Input
Amino acid sequence: MDITSCFCVSAAAVFFFTVLWKLKEGCGTWFWTVWALVWVLVWALVGSSLYLSGPPVVCGLAVLGCSLFLMCETEKRVELQSRAVLITGCDSGFGLALALRLSESGLKVFAGVLDEDGAGAQQLRGRGCENLQVLQLDVTDNNQIETAHRYIGTQVADTGLWGLVNNAGVLHCPVDAELQPITAFRYCMDVNFLSAVKMCQVFLPLLRRSRGRIVNVSSMAGTSD
Ligand SMILES: *[C@@H]1O[C@H](CO)[C@@H](O)[C@H](O)[C@H]1NC(C)=O
Output
């Protein structure tokens, strides 16, 4: 094998291992496009250098260039371990499932529950996951919100809060409006709406610190009146 072929095969090998390395890093979909495109180039190069003994140095340089590009391309990937999220209403349903899911992905999760001795809270604690903390948090109780805020503030002092998921909500017995006492409507507004506003007000400074996001969870029942 002459020196040109050696160079080209080496270039292809470098590219091949770069691709493997990038795949291991789990890169996004754009990467697959580049991968497919450049593979065509690689095969053309290897084929021409081995069988046609043409001048494939240019192709070799191109493949090396691609390898370097891929190596230097540091996709902005989220460092989940350093991110913290607060979810309300983790006693059951979406909140519980989300707390489990996000903590399994490595995020630091503060799971607010209405009843810290309830079944949901126990299930969360039972995971023994050190990045999942259960907090007593009745979202209609300003004192509990303040306590949670102080605690989370000490825990994420440097990084702030990456997400607030206003998930806590109630659904009253869906009967005719004239049969519902006004207190039921008031309670519904307190839990489903005003508490979300309050949570946003209290946690915005921590959210801003990490350019975090607010996610409001609603229900299809909210459109039925
Ligand atoms: C979430 O709810 C709060 C309080 O009602 C509101 O201010 C905010 O705009 C909502 N955010 C989103 C993304 O819906």
